[in-house]
Amino acid sequence: MAANDTIADMLTRIRNANLARHQTTKVPATKMTRNIATVLREEGFINDFEEAGEGVKRNLVISLKYKGKNRQPLITALKRVSKPGLRVYANRKELPRVLGGIGIAIISTSSGIMTDREARRQNVGGEVLCYVW
């Protein structure tokens, strides 16, 4: 299935797998989804991810993280901010804080994909891709 918005597709697959309490989920592998998965791993929202498949049919197998005996998902919500029809940009002074710093905003900057905290530290702005908390 061809998706115009690979980021929204990735977030939806992670959201659905979390709600169904799956251990892993598959996402089509692109440079962007790889970078977002790396940020999610560094921030502790997912355990790990690995690439599977060959050629055009490459997928990222994302291992999800849960807490407690009830297996509550660590990711409460994922929200796509900048969409193909309406891009949202923020300069270094306007970078959003998600839930007062509890969550993260994933920003696409000229220095690569990073969290809002890292973008503030490096003093750069960019496209606000999504919020995760």
Textual characterization of the structure:
With 133 residues, the chain is of the alpha+beta class. The chain is built from 3 helices and 10 strands. The protein has helices spanning 6-19, 31-42, 116-122, and strands at 24-28, 46-52, 59-64, 66-67, 72-73, 78-80, 89-90, 104-109, 112-115, 126-132. The strands form 3 sheets. Strands 6, 7, 8, 9 and 10 form a 5-stranded antiparallel beta sheet that branches. Strand 4 (66-67) and strand 5 (72-73) form a beta hairpin. The longest helix is centred in the N-terminal third of the chain and has 14 residues, at 6-19. The chain is globular, with a radius of gyration of 15 Å. The mean pLDDT is 96.
Largest sheet: 5 strands, antiparallel
Q: How many strand segments? A: 10
* Percent in helix: 10-25%
Mean pLDDT across all amino acids: 96
Give the structural class: alpha+beta
| Termini Cα gap | 28 Å
**Unreliable stretches covering 5 or more consecutive residues:** none
* Estimated radius of gyration: 15 Å
Strand content: 25-35%
